[in-house]
Amino acid sequence: MKTASAVVPGGESTLPSKATSKFKRPDMLHIYTLLVMAFLLLPISAMVLFGFNNTRGRFNLQWQGFTLRWYRDVFAIGQLTGALKVSLFISVLVMLTATIMGTLMAVAIQRYRFFGKGIINAVLVMNISSSSVVIGSSLLSLFVAANVALGQFTIFAAQVMFSIPYAVITIRARLAVLDPVTEEAAADLGATPLKTFFTITLPQLAPGIFGAALLTFALSIDDYVITSFVSGTTLTFPLWVYGSTREGTPPQVNVIGTLIFMIGLLVAIGSGVVRERRNRRRLAVLSAN
Amino acid sequence: MGAQVDVGNESTSRVAAGATDHDGRSGHLALENVTKRFSDFVAVENLDLAIRSGEFISLLGPSGCGKTTTLRMLGGFEEPTSGRILLDGVEITGLPPYRRDINTVFQSYALFPHLDVWENIAYGLKRKKIASSEINTRAGEVVELVGLSQFTKRKPRELSGGQQQRVALARALVNRPKVLLLDEPLSALDVKLRKQMQLELKRIQRDVGVSFVFVTHDQEEAMTMSDRVAVMSKGRLEQVGSPQEIYSRPETEFVATFLGAANLLRGTFISSSAEFWKVKLANSSEILVPATGKRDGVEVIFGVRPEKISISKPGERRLADTTNRIAGRVSQAVFFGVASQYQVVLTDGTEVSVYQQNFADGVSHVAGEEVELCWQADAAFTL
Ligand SMILES: Nc1ncnc2c1ncn2[C@@H]1O[C@H](COP(=O)(O)OP(=O)(O)O)[C@@H](O)[C@H]1O
Ligand SMILES: [Mg+2]
Description:
The complex is a heterodimer.
Chain A lengths: L1 H10 L2 H11 L3 H23 L18 H4 L5 H34 L5 H13 L2 H14 L6 H26 L3 H8 L4 H30 L2 H6 L6 H8 L6 H38 L1
Chain B lengths: L1 H20 L7 E10 L2 E11 L4 E5 L6 H9 L6 E6 L2 E2 L10 E4 L11 H11 L4 H14 L15 H13 L5 E5 L7 H18 L2 E6 L2 H7 L2 E6 L2 E6 L1 H6 L4 H6 L4 E10 L3 E5 L5 E5 L8 E6 L5 E3 L10 E13 L3 E8 L4 E7 L12 E7 L4 E2 L1
Parallel strand pairs in B: 3-8, 3-9, 6-7, 7-8
Antiparallel strand pairs in B: 1-2, 1-4, 4-5, 9-10, 11-12, 11-14, 12-13, 14-20, 15-19, 16-17, 16-19, 17-18
Bound molecules: adenosine-5'-diphosphate and magnesium ion.
Adenosine-5'-diphosphate binds next to strand 2 and helix 2 of chain B.
């Protein structure tokens, strides 16, 4: 590790000077980039900011001073907290189900040839490209026709359905860069297909699976359109927020939104740091050889 | 590198003892009339090959001739369309890879990227439910054998190509397979490292006594490393034999030309003695060729390698009666330093190429010069 720390700073010593020389003369590209970033960050900033707004009335639209009140009282609105709990519960289940099913489907599609593979591929793409409103309304007809009581189960089923294609695509992307010969090597060394899957394929897929889990969780906790058709009387977080807009959305919604955003940000930064560390270690070790 | 090799030598005796004590004569692998078709493309056709216990045999042939496919059938990754594969007399044709006492060093190494060197090497032993104390001893032995002791905690991507190659070898050898399959294991290395690994691989094979089936398209590599070479072309086995046999006594035109330069000549059969046939060339000179080839009717095809022909001024040499002599004219002389290559045109227009050591400065004969070519009758081969 001594060599690692000695090599890395030396190896990257050219970077800072390059960066400063670029910042000396801001050109159009830099200005353009900053504008786009500002455009993207604006709504998020507004969300975060108004979570600290010391608002008195029903509407949280005008800046009235800074407060941490809403953070203290974040769970003060019973219905909102309830809806959030329902959302978290469903989203965790959807994440687990869609990720597991997506992983298995991705492996099947990427690794095996079987009857109906083309159809499955087509259905996955169609699923992503179809209109949410149409899917939602037809799912509603389906559930009603099949006499399935609307509620948490139908929300779960609908969300799993629309999340799976995203999970499959994320994991297939990872599978595609995986060396399939490592699986043959495992078999060569005495591993049964099941053992190979758990000791060789799955660990190498981990980053893809992790990504798919994040994505399906985010899709699920955020979904409004499809969920609204199949929810019956159940309220999820997005449904409750949408319903609240008429009588004024409480600042707690901004707080919860901010917290969800922060968690996502931390996960992204965390995985970036892990990757960076691994790359540095590898570079250090290789150049020390 | 030198230090690593020394460390390896010290431990090899222990590994060798372990490899042979379960069965001194195992590792006999036989392909019986094996054919592999991919839809309507025949990749391997009616292959019959017996691999002897403890030998180093190469499958040699140009790219696409079916070497990898043959190896994959031995490893259990492809099922033969027809034919049988036997290991120590027991049929293994339908067995999956994980139930064969055979291990493979893959062309791309196929190391497990998420496991470190030690875990890669121990992987096979863990699958066999071997006690962890024994895993430690055995993995420790092969790690030393291939000179990777300092690298056991590294991930594969933190190793150089040569080191990765050693991990792949150690990972396979630690299982003490009856046969080790190697698919062009050195092709990714640069020339210098490749030469070094050739010697080391050969040493390791001798030490552990496991049968090695080594795939390569490099004839020099096959010749320097192997006890026997099996030459393949277009899915068929052309010839099997020791490097000297296939070089000096090729049985087909393909083998003759694939293993090095060869002058292939035609003549008509005149008469035969015990050892030789007398053959008349198109320019009506009569020569002797070994009476070993197949002969349809009167046409005889034979070959002489360029380094076996000596070139001299006409009438300069006194000759034994088993020496062939033909006249020609030098059309081109190319200086290579240690030797020169001469293109000589015979009176009937046939071109013959000759290598000769440079006894003096520069070439000994120049273009346009009339010369005499001589070779021992038994230095040629008849197809
Ligand atoms: N899975 C496969 N499907 C179809 N053709 C294949 C397959 N594997 C190999 N082949 C064909 O079989 C021939 C022999 O291939 P291979 O054994 O890899 O040759 P080599 O290793 O000697 O270069 C090639 O023409 C190759 O295209
Ligand atoms: Mg090959």
